[in-house]
UniProtKB/TrEMBL annotation:
The keyword Hydrolase applies. The lineage of its organism: Eukaryota, Metazoa, Ecdysozoa, Arthropoda, Hexapoda. Keywords: Hydrolase, Lipid degradation, Lipid metabolism. It comes from Aromia moschata. PROSITE patterns: PLD. PANTHER family: CARDIOLIPIN HYDROLASE, MITOCHONDRIAL CARDIOLIPIN HYDROLASE. Belongs to the phospholipase D family. MitoPLD/Zucchini subfamily. This is Mitochondrial cardiolipin hydrolase. One of its GO terms (molecular function) is RNA endonuclease activity producing 5'-phosphomonoesters, hydrolytic mechanism. GO terms for biological process: lipid catabolic process; piRNA processing. Transmembrane segments: none annotated.
Length: 158
């Protein structure tokens, strides 16, 4: 069983997710199930890598899960949101971080040589939470500009 799926079954209060790409359907299902149990979920993804999973992303959003996508400021320049981490229940002693080299894709778990780290260290959890907050606030503000808003509306993500 994939470790990210195990993490998603342990949620109590909150989960902040920052990945370039999530393409595993079971992860989308687990996120939705956790949300339906009252877990606050926020997801950051890279817009340019979302095309194959727009239906799943729209479904999460329609259910009330907060999803933001990073859109490169300069289409001619290769700029992506390349984070790969989840912060579980950062506000209590059971909080932990899942991070590593992998995206949440089948090939990451089945074909690639990847690393995964889980840590309960409160300082690391807080640092990752703070990084997520900074990224969330930046992307949220950036997506209010006319170009990004138009791109998101065209993709039915706004």
């Amino acid at each position: 069983m994939n470790p990210s799926y195990i993490l998603l079954t342990l949620l109590k209060k909150s989960l902040d997710v920052a990945f370039m790409l999530i393409s595993i359907n079971k992860v989308y299902t687990a996120l939705l199930n956790a949300h339906r149990k009252g877990v606050k979920i926020r997801i950051l993804l890279n817009f340019d890598h979302c095309n194959s999973k727009l239906t799943e992303i729209r479904h999460l959003m329609s259910e009330g899960i907060a999803v933001l996508t990073y859109i490169s400021m300069n289409p001619g320049m290769s700029s992506i949101m390349h984070h790969k981490f989840m912060v579980k229940d950062y506000s209590d002693s059971d909080g932990f971080v899942f991070t590593g080299s992998l995206n949440l894709t089948k090939s990451a778990f089945l074909n690639n040589y990847e690393d995964i780290t889980f840590t309960f260290n409160e300082y690391v959890v807080k640092a990752f939470h703070n990084n997520f907050e900074e990224c969330w606030n930046y992307i949220q503000a950036d997506n209010e500009n006319l170009i990004n808003k138009t791109v998101l509306l065209d993709a039915n993500l706004a």
